[in-house]
TrEMBL record:
This is HD domain-containing protein. Pfam families: HD. InterPro entries: HD/PDEase_dom, HD_domain. Residues 22-137 form the HD/PDEase domain. It comes from the Bacteria. It comes from Companilactobacillus suantsaicola.
Length: 217
C-alpha cells in the first residue's frame, strides 16, 4: 500500500467510528483537525503519515465517547497492522492519541513528539474561536448544562483531577476553565498566531454576552 492508500483507509476507518457521534466530536471536527494539521505541516519538519493518522484517530478511543477505550485502542492497533504500518509507527500514533487531551496537560504534561504537538494544536484550534463557541454551546446543550450563572464563579486554575471532576459547570464558565487557556498552550508558532484572532473573538463574545445579560446593551 502507498502512504496515500494507507491514509485513505485510516480516513474511512475514522469515519465509520465517528459518524454516529453527535457530541460535537463528529467527523466534521475530525476533518477540520486534519485540514489544520496539514496547514501546520507545511511549516514544520514532521512526519506526514504519523501526523495525519493521529489526527484522524485522535478521538476514536476517547473515554468520553466509548465505554472501553482500551478495547478500541487494540482495535485501532489491529487495523493499522492490517494496512501495513510498522509497529514503531503504530506506537507513535497511539502515544499521540492517548496523550493529547487538555486534562492530561494540566499537571505533569506528557512530552509529545512534533507530530503530536501539531495534532494537539489542530485539535485545540478547533475548540476556540467561532467554531469553539458553537461546539461549547452544542456540548452544553446536549449535557443539559446551565448557560450562565453569575453566582457560580469560574475556577481558572484547576488541576487534572479537579478539571475531570467538575460537576456544575456552566457553558460560560467552560470558556474560563478551558477555552481561554488554550491560546498560550499552543505548541507551534503558526498555531500560536492563528489562535490570537480566535481568542480575541471569544473575549468579544463574552463581553457582549455579559452586557446583554445585564441589559446594558
Ligand atoms: P476535543 O478533545 O475534541 O477538543 P472535548 O471532548 O474536550 O473535545 O469536547 C468537545 C467539545 O465540547 C469541545 O469544543 C469542548 O470545548 C466542548 N466542551 C467540553 N466540555 C464542555 C463543557 N463542560 N461545557 C461546554 N463545552 C464543553
Ligand atoms: Ni478532538
Amino acid at each position: 500500500m502507498t502512504e496515500e492508500q494507507q491514509l485513505q483507509a485510516i480516513k474511512d476507518f475514522s469515519y465509520q467510528k465517528m459518524k454516529k457521534d453527535a457530541s460535537g466530536h463528529n467527523f466534521d471536527h475530525i476533518q477540520r483537525v486534519v485540514k489544520t494539521a496539514k496547514r501546520l505541516l507545511t511549516q514544520e519538519p514532521a512526519d506526514k503519515l504519523i501526523t495525519l493518522a493521529a489526527a484522524y484517530l485522535h478521538d476514536v478511543a476517547d473515554d468520553k465517547l466509548v465505554s472501553d477505550p482500551k478495547e478500541l485502542e487494540s482495535e485501532i492497533q489491529k487495523f493499522l497492522l492490517q494496512i501495513d504500518l510498522t509497529s514503531q509507527q503504530i506506537e507513535k500514533i497511539l502515544f499521540i492519541t492517548h496523550n493529547l487531551s487538555f486534562s492530561q496537560s494540566l499537571d505533569n504534561p506528557p512530552k509529545l513528539s512534533l507530530e503530536g504537538q501539531i495534532v494537539q494544536d489542530a485539535d485545540r484550534l478547533d475548540a476556540i474561536g467561532a467554531i469553539g463557541i458553537t461546539r461549547a454551546i452544542y456540548y452544553g446543550g446536549k449535557h443539559a448544562e446551565t448557560i450562565y450563572d453569575p453566582k457560580i464563579l469560574p475556577r481558572k486554575n484547576l488541576n487534572k483531577a479537579e478539571y475531570r471532576n467538575l460537576s456544575n459547570e456552566t457553558i460560560i464558565n467552560h470558556f474560563y476553565e478551558k477555552l481561554l487557556k488554550l491560546t498560550e498552550m499552543m505548541n507551534t508558532p503558526t498555531a500560536k498566531e492563528v489562535a490570537q484572532a480566535r481568542h480575541q473573538y471569544m473575549l468579544d463574545f463574552l463581553e457582549e454576552f455579559k452586557n446583554e445579560w445585564n441589559a446594558e446593551r
